[in-house]
TrEMBL record:
GO terms for molecular function: beta-ureidopropionase activity. It comes from the Eukaryota. This is Beta-ureidopropionase. Keywords: Hydrolase. InterPro entries: Aliph_Amidase/BUP, C-N_Hydrolase, C-N_Hydrolase_sf. Its EC number is 3.5.1.6.
Amino acid sequence: MEKTISENGETVADGSIRGYDSLHQLLSANLKPELYQEVSRMLLGSNCGKSLEKIVLPESANTLSLKHDFDLQALSFSADKEQMRKPRVVRVALIQNSIALPTTAPFSDQKRGIFDKLKPMIDAAGFSGVNILCLQEAWTMPFAFCTREKKWCEFAEPVDGESTKFLQEYAKKYNMVIVNPILERDIDHGEVLWNTAVIIGNNGNIIGKHRKNHIPRVGDFNESTYYMEGDTGHPVFETVFGKIAVNICYGRHHPLNWLAFGLNGAEIVFNPSATVGELSEPMWPIEARNAAIANSYFVGSINRVGTEVFPNAFTSGDGKPQHNDFGHFYGSSHFSAPDASCTPSLSRYKDGLMISDMDLNLCRQYKDKWGFRMTARYEVYADLLASYIKPDFKPQVVSDPMLHKNSS
Ligand SMILES: NC(=O)NCCC(=O)O
């Protein structure tokens, strides 16, 4: 167990929930098995009438997780057998990690340290036959956007920069599609910055990029100091393993953002994130799962882990005393499926690799079952939105005439 810190006024072990890695671990350790089964059925849902099955991973992957002390979980989502289509099972993985060195270390050492700590996790994914892997938001750096200091811009790199080159080797080696979320510097357009996910194909080629659509202006998340809202729309990348998209962090609070990736045909949407307990933990398991249900696709949610302390104290104009850290990034990466089932979460404080098999046929099966696409009434909302964005928009409110009588 790590040192203790104070979070929300309570003393807790650093990042754990009173010594437990995750909510699911806490519940399974403290409830009678028959009660845990009921809680788990409601909390994690069921897939084809049963709980998710554990995947047996190769010994080499388990050995790496023990040696390098990262959480490793692997569960399988299935779909009903169809007569006309073969199952389309893909193995998908998420990596969550803390930074490797203090934020005061030379920048190149910090970056190299993170690359080094990711190597065994990527190898474990490769040894396990993972087809698509997604890393966390701005994984090459501390999440320094709380500080508003511009020196952290040095971590930015072009789409084909150092981290993409690093991951291209793994993509080729393991025949793996890799989603690489970075702080991007657009060299060809005045060296401006973006929050970007680069999609690397299984041949090591760059398929494309997506830039974060919604930029937070909440609490310490002062990201608008660094980059603007993305200009790449809602691309879906057709890979040899399926159609994927990336909804970067704060975009998960915007149902229309999720919808747009769905309308473009996504089968798996990744949500690489950086968010802290006090701000968003109660939202975390709900938003992704809701998006998976409403849009009939799989969602892979990833959050970094640990508490990152910065050399200079900062404030966020909210009257709180100045401080040197964001709070605790609570990990808890997991997958959600269109049938409302989801995996348990990875550790709240340890690095981790979450692997899932998913039969992508489940997406269409759930479109057919619930008919959310058919019943969506898009034309009604298109009309409303078209009028809402006009300056002369008036909300459609029908007031009780008595209301006005009483107030006059
Ligand atoms: N990185 C980022 O967008 N964080 C915002 C906080 C949140 O959405 O929970």
